[in-house]
Amino acid sequence: MLPTTARSAPRVAHVFGGNDPVGAFVSHMIAVQRNIEAHASRGLDRAARLIEEDARGRPGNYQPAVGPFPAWAPLSASYEAKKVAAGFPANSPLVRSGDMRDSIGRTVRGLEAVVGATDPTMVFHELGTSRMPPRPVLGPAVFRNRKAIERLLGDALRDGILGGQITEAGGYFG
Predict the structure, then answer these.
(1) Which of 65, 75, 86, 168 is the most buried (most CB within 10 A)?
(2) Quick check: 113 and 45 in contact, CB under 8 A?
(3) Residue 10 domain flag
(4) For the whole model, what pTM was predicted?
C-alpha cells in the first residue's frame, strides 16, 4: 500500500471518489487502459483503411519507385498481347478482371491490424518471382502514407489517454 499523509488522502479521495483512494485510483487506471485500447483500435482501423484504399488504387497504372520499393517494370510484349487477345484491358498492369485488386482488404482485432489480399497471386506480384519482377502495392501503400499513419495513431493514443478528443481550435472535450 502506498503511504499517505493525513493531508494527501482527502485530496486523492476527492479526485477519485470514495474512502479507498488506492482502490479508486486502480479502478481509474483500468478505465484509462480500456479507453486507450479502444481509441488505439479505432486509430489502427483508420490507418489500415488508408493503406487498403491506397493499395486498391494502384493496379492498372504503372507505379514509380517509392522508398525501398522498385518502379513497376513494363509487362512483356508477349504477355501484353496475350492479355489483349483474351479480352483484358491493354496497358493495365495487375488488372485482368479486377478480382485481385478487389480482394485487398483489412482486418482489425483489438490492437492488431492486417492489410492484405485474399487472392493468392498477390504475393507473387508483391514480391516478384524468378520469372516476374515485383510490382508491389501493399508495401508502397504503407511507405507513402507513413506520416498520416503516425498522425492517426498518435491522435488515437492521445485521445485514449485524455478520454476524449482535441478540437481543431485546441479545446478539449471528453
Answers:
(1) 75
(2) yes
(3) no
(4) 0.77
Q: What is the pLDDT of residues 62-103, one digit of tens each?
A: 999 999 999 999 988 998 999 899 988 888 888 888 899 999
Does 84 map to a domain?
yes
Give the chain's domain count: 1
All three cell numbers of 123 = 504475393
Q: Per the domain annotation, does 13 fall within a domain?
A: no
3-state secondary structure 24-62: HHHHHHHHHHHHHHHHHHHHHHHHHHHHHHHHHCCCCCC
Predicted local distance difference test score (pLDDT) of residue 8:
47
Cα separation of 124 and 100, whole Å?
Answer: 12
Distance CA 54, CA 146 (A): 12
